[in-house]
Structure formats: C-alpha cells, structure tokens
Amino acid sequence: MAALEFTRRYAMAHRLLATQSPKCAIPHGHNEFVTVRLDPITTFKFTDTNSAAPFELAKKRWHQWIDDHVDHALHLGESDPLIGYFRENEPALLKQIMTFQGDPTTEALAACFFLKLSAFIADDKLPFTVREVRIEETPTNTVIITRETFDPATNGLRPSAWPHRADMSINDF
C-alpha cells in the first residue's frame, strides 16, 4: 500500500517560560500547518480497492480533532500561572487550553501530535503507522518528528497524559 500524507492549518497561541526568551514569554500566536505521513502496515498490491483505507477514513478523526479542539487553543505548560487565572476567573475556557509537561514548544507539540494520531489510528484499527509529523510554525521554522527521532514508548510523558488517549482531549483538566 502507498503512504498517505495530509496537511491541516490551524491557529494557536502559546508562551514559553522555561526557555527564558523575552519574546516568547509573552503570549503570542502562530498560524501553523501540520503535515502527517502515515505508512501502510503492508506493501502495495493491486486489489479491488487499490488502497489500504479510504483517505476520508484515515484523516476524518484527525481533522476533526485539529479543527474542533486544536484550532485557536492556548498552549501552556502545566505549571504556567495563567492556568490558575483561568481556573479562578474563566473556568469555561479551560477546555481551550492545551497543556504540556514543560514549555509548549513546537517540538513538544509535534511529539504530542505524533502520539495523539497514533492513538486515533490504533483505536480506529486503521492499517497504518505514523511515520512523520511536520509542523510549520512560521514560513522559516519547521519541526519534524519521525519514528527514527522519537520513541513513543520512552518519551518521558506520563502514560496517562492526554496525547496517549484516543479521545478529543487537549489537556488533563
């Protein structure tokens, strides 16, 4: 079977506190593109359908999650004091905050996307594995996570954290 690749655009905001970059310590936003590449579990052979799974089935849940939960989310580290503000003053907006162990860097985002997409694929029993997640943060900055550069089993993330779950979550509130 042939590899599948698809791209989605979304808007987000984040701030980075641990990196101690004055520019990134203030909440700011990006219009980002995420491109994912899925490898089939088996090699291509001509069949009646000539595909491992319809494109629509392979990308439906992923696109729904990006469009309905990731788009316009605020990305914060779990220890960011802004989370306390939202808990006390605007608790209804907590569902729009994506949380991270440590700073919400593009590298961390790509790793979380890799895990979430892998969870969706496994839960939907699709005949693919995630090969690559590429996030274009700006036209000049892109982060790429691949199976060769990221080990989902030994990544340091809590096993119960939201990226491991095949639900629509973006945090553990």
From TrEMBL:
InterPro entries: 6-PTP_synth/QueD, 6-PTP_synth/QueD_sf. It comes from the Bacteria. GO terms for molecular function: 6-carboxytetrahydropterin synthase activity. Its EC number is 4.1.2.50. Pfam families: PTPS (PF01242). Pathway: Purine metabolism; 7-cyano-7-deazaguanine biosynthesis. It catalyses: 7,8-dihydroneopterin 3'-triphosphate + H2O = 6-carboxy-5,6,7,8-tetrahydropterin + triphosphate + acetaldehyde + 2 H(+). Catalyzes the conversion of 7,8-dihydroneopterin triphosphate (H2NTP) to 6-carboxy-5,6,7,8-tetrahydropterin (CPH4) and acetaldehyde. Belongs to the PTPS family. QueD subfamily. This is 6-carboxy-5,6,7,8-tetrahydropterin synthase.
